[in-house]
Amino acid sequence: MRTSQRIASAAAAGLMGAAMAVAAPGVASAADPCQLGWSNVGPRTCAMTDVGMAPVWTLGNGVCAGMLSVSGNAFDGPLWEYSSAPGAVHSVELRISQGFSPLGEWASTTLACDVTAIIDWQNLDTGRSGTISRYVPAANTSTHPMLVNVETGPGRVRLTMRTDHPSIPVTTDVIVP
Known about the structure:
Elements lengths: L2 H21 L10 E2 L8 E2 L2 E5 L3 E5 L3 E12 L15 E8 L16 E9 L5 E8 L9 E5 L4 E9 L3 E2 L1 E7 L1
Parallel strand pairs: 1-2
Antiparallel strand pairs: 3-5, 4-5, 4-11, 5-6, 6-9, 7-8, 7-10, 10-12
């Protein structure tokens, strides 16, 4: 390899390295805000634990058979300013949806009734507990779920979901980072 080729190769490598340094995202610290999911720019990724529950079967509006589906994420936080709960730390964000659609978003939803969801929680490590209730209209299907933030603090947390009408409660345990 000639000297001119070596110089050209070194210059190209230097320019490429400089471009990578400028384009690379900054390193976020644990105190920086985070967002649920993942990000390679902006806020850091939260430490998360997935939350899943069996469906809650209920009677809403008197005689309407209904089904609430619940999923979510337990996270460390603090959540960034554009989240559903800016600044929340050591919490669980639940996505509550009504009924199900056998053909996905292109068909009507069945087993959807206006109902109030009640979330009872207990932090098994600290002893703290509480109850949160949210009115969930039948229109909150899987394509437009209701977001509910439960501020539990870090540790092992037991979540129980029920409704204000006759229902079959469902319980799950989750580790909140």
